[in-house]
Specification:
Dihydrodipicolinate Reductase, domain 2, 10 helices, 367 residues, alpha/beta, six-stranded parallel β-sheet, homodimer, 22% strand, Rossmann fold, 2 domains, nine-stranded mixed β-sheet
Chain lengths: 367, 367
């Protein structure tokens, strides 16, 4: 079995597809040059993701540096200050973060707070003159997503959403396999992401902060995959939700399945759960073959197989570092991000339609 | 990695579940005894399935023999007569098959004709005093399925549907894994079966003979799997169909996805296609682990893996031989088949609801 990086590189060099129709170019293409200055990131929200993924990733970036933090926990502030040598003047809380306006160390605020606070923290950051990278899901309603877009636009600042898979080489290769019709025309996409959630008191299980359950948190990866693989927007969705543990899942769905129809005739069958294991994969069934990734959405070790026996196993990068370096380059070169607020808004719109379908028992049109 | 036949056998010996709640017992349990006489099968419909699977399988049975044929093609009759030494008196066509009433060589008619003719040929056989084994799908409408059940009952003859997976050891093992909660409670089942259909003139693409497209032909395996794995009947279904080749698929669906909700909270996400490759698998995601079969529905070589690293790779039997031997034993011992007409009717009812949902854009209740 042979990895396929050669052909992806050739494709990106030689394809006649415009960048607009294939927005997922290599994350590594311009990393070789040395930046004049590094973009200063402030992390807002110092939970697990910031602690275990984003802060370590920042140390691996070429164009970024951890310049500041925003946290409501003084003890976290002290620990991060000590670990990352952050000056007191770059440490903020959610009540005074607008004062970043006077702090030239900070170019970008990476919003890693609960979903339902992304708009508040994005808007405060934009008004303080900062670019914003917000974690996904973008927010808990279409209206709040639109506010984020509008406020960043008004401030003349870029807004990106933390879709790390858009920078992951194996995902980019899978996009190529579909768009270049390596196995003919894709017909059915099956994608799922779920896990068994722990602590029953966490914000992810609270409707106001999370906006929903497993769909908003990890199902969004399957949804986004169905969109980036096809390069199309779904025109119809239908969905089911279930709860088998009504105590733990009193506010949000425990499991969900949804199916979506794309303009070219592709059907995506997707699922997510907060109470099931072995769901972090996708498969594309095409008229000339198939390929699948399992795992497809992990921080590391994503790999797959193709119907011709070849493996999909490209280099295992730090996805957060690639995402942040790309955003830093977009800012430095004043060009648009491949994962703008509009991309986040699209997923939230579709997720709201998915919930509507589960609630009403009717197919919801997105056209 | 270690196969798991030991534990299945133990389970079947020791479980407190009644046979009624676990109808899928070992196909091999009573094959050791020598029969007093072999049950005579007449095959009605001498297409690919009869030629390449069922007739060869009959040669491997312990309780059955190929006694006769029913065909509308005299040249096929001549070829089969020569190959299998079938006496002229046991060769029928669809117009004179009622005359089997006078033929004691034939105990069972195995109906392998197009879906939309199963009722006609079943009813003729029952009225001739023969037991009937009908291929799946049972028929193209609920009404015709019910007629088959009623006529066989009236004739005092058994009616079985050709659900070969109910006799396949790996499938039985998967049922055990769910019912015995080896990986905890199942939450999400993903099942799909599709392939790229050839000859555009074949009856499978004609609505009146086939009743539908890929769902009726192979999607039924995914549907039936969702039911045998859970041991429950779905209470709601929703579905999408698509056609990308309107010439070839002018009468029936090309691809379909459906989701169904089960009383215990399990969601099944299922798919089928006549124009996609790499779909013949299922996965069960449970709260304590997972397992998957790929392929899950093949004539041979079904195998799978479990989240604990063990393989699911039990003995590769001839499923058709097991299915026919079981039916023969049911007849010899005057006990009910595990795959009665009622089982076929349930799938047809659900498939009609799936089509209704695809047509109306509404979730269809099956309660």
């Amino acid at each position: 079995m042979k990895a396929t990086n050669q052909s992806r590189r050739d494709f990106i060099k030689t394809t006649s597809l415009a960048a607009a129709s294939l927005p997922f170019m290599s994350a590594l293409s311009s990393c070789a040059q040395t930046p004049d200055r590094k973009i200063g990131f402030a992390l807002a929200g110092l939970g697990n993701l910031s602690t275990n993924q984003i802060a370590p990733a920042l140390q691996k970036t070429k164009f970024c540096r951890l310049a500041g933090i925003v946290t409501g926990h003084p003890q976290k502030a002290a620990a991060w200050k000590a670990q990352y040598n952050i000056p007191d003047k770059n440490i903020y809380n959610y009540d005074n973060m607008e004062q970043m306006a006077d702090n030239s160390d900070i170019d970008v605020v990476y919003v890693v707070t609960p979903n339902g606070l992304h708009a508040e923290h994005t808007i405060k950051s934009a008004r303080a003159g900062k670019h914003v990278l917000s974690e996904k899901p973008m927010e808990v309603s279409v209206e709040k997503c639109q506010q984020m877009i509008d406020e960043c636009k008004k401030a003349g600042k870029q807004l990106a959403i933390g879709y790390r898979m858009h920078f992951e080489p194996n995902s980019l290769e899978c996009i190529r396999l579909v768009r270049e019709k390596v196995f003919g025309s894709a017909k059915i996409i099956d994608a799922a992401f779920g896990f068994r959630i722990g602590d029953p008191t966490q914000w992810r299980l609270k409707k106001d902060l999370a906006g929903g359950g497993c769909l908003m948190d990890v199902g969004i990866y399957a949804l986004n995959a169905s969109r980036y693989l096809t390069g199309e927007e779904p025109v119809e969705v239908s969905a089911f939700t279930t709860v088998t543990d009504p105590v733990k899942f009193s506010q949000v769905e425990e499991s969900i399945s949804w199916q979506s129809k794309f303009p070219g005739g592709i059907i995506a069958r997707c699922g997510s759960s907060y109470n099931a294991q072995g769901m972090a994969d996708f498969k594309v069934s095409a008229d000339g073959g198939w390929f699948k990734m399992d795992p497809a959405f992990s921080y590391h070790g994503n790999h797959g197989v193709r119907s011709d026996g070849q493996e999909i196993n490209l280099s295992d990068i730090d996805q957060f570092a690639a995402e942040m370096d790309d955003f830093a380059q977009c800012i430095l070169e004043n060009r648009p991000t491949r994962v703008p607020g509009e991309e986040g808004l699209r997923d939230v719109k579709i997720m709201m339609a998915i919930y509507e379908s589960a609630r009403t028992g009717k197919t919801v049109s997105l056209a």
